[in-house]
Specification:
hpI Integrase, Chain A; single chain
């Protein structure tokens, strides 16, 4: 998707106002490979919803994005793209502000830290997670900003549009996210099992698929989601028995015909992720 320059009506200048020209330049540089992506770091998180399903077909992911853009629903497209690329719980996703991913000089950050919040056994658990900002996210955010003048760094990325036309800076509610996803599924014939967890499950599913169902990636996702077993993670993200079989076939530990990646600098307890 090209980052097309769009002219906007003049807006009131403040130090917090996002400079769209600088954002667009940062987007073009990242897409040209001039900004090197940082390594992703993942942390513990537990998920307990199993009703939703991931979007497994890449063509369906593209269909959703094109559908939303065609309807000029740029906020919802940004929500969808950021959700499936960051893999955050919806409560953490909707708490994001533009300052999380855009620097004070209106260039995109390589990565950022977010304090994830999770309630478990009536106790609040918080932990920093570091997230890489990839090209798909940059494109979706740039497209939104090109079509939404006057956005500030302090604004929530996914602002509520139900404030009776007011300019109040409030994040979208979880129920609204759920309704948006269910509406998309209905309009595009994607079934009736899309909900807020669809975004996170789609992230996890494609992490596994793109790794070739590497068991090491499964362990990484298990730790990220805080699951007690790999089987629980597979069930959560919707990996089928056929895909599990393929993962075992690919493992081949001890086979003299397989090439293994060995790093002598790894310390005990660490592993490489492909």
């Amino acid at each position: 998707m090209a980052c097309t320059i769009i002219q906007f009506p003049p807006v009131r200048e403040t130090s917090d106002l996002i400079n769209i020209s600088t954002v667009q330049q940062s987007c073009r540089k990242l897409k040209a490979g001039l900004i090197a992506p940082a390594a992703e770091e993942v942390t513990h998180e537990l998920a307990n919803e199993h009703a939703a399903e991931p979007i497994k077909d890449m063509n369906d992911i593209i269909r959703v994005s094109q559908f939303l853009i065609g309807q000029k629903r740029f906020r919802d497209n940004m929500l969808f793209i950021v959700g499936i690329n960051f893999g955050l719980r919806v409560s953490d996703l909707t708490s994001l502000r533009f300052s999380h991913i855009i620097n004070d000089d209106c260039t995109f950050r390589d990565r950022f830290a977010i304090l994830e919040k999770k309630t478990k056994n009536t106790r609040a658990h918080k932990r920093n997670r570091y997230i890489t900002v990839n090209t798909a996210v940059v494109e979706a955010v740039t497209l939104y900003l090109e079509n939404t003048p006057g956005v500030r760094l302090s604004d929530f990325m996914f602002r509520s549009e139900s404030n009776n036309g007011s300019n109040e800076n409030k994040p979208i509610h979880r129920a609204s996210v759920d309704n948006i996803l269910k509406g998309i599924a209905r309009d595009l014939g994607l079934g009736n099992r899309m909900s807020t967890h669809t975004l996170r499950k789609t992230f996890a599913y494609h992490q596994m698929v793109m790794s070739g169902n590497d068991p090491r990636k499964l362990l990484l996702l298990q730790k990220m989601f805080g699951h007690s077993s790999a089987a629980q993670t597979l069930d959560y993200i919707g990996i089928t028995s056929e895909e599990i079989d393929e993962a075992y076939r690919r493992l081949n530990l001890g086979s003299v015909s397989c090439n293994y990646l060995v790093d002598s600098d790894l310390v005990e307890g660490e592993f490489l992720v492909g």
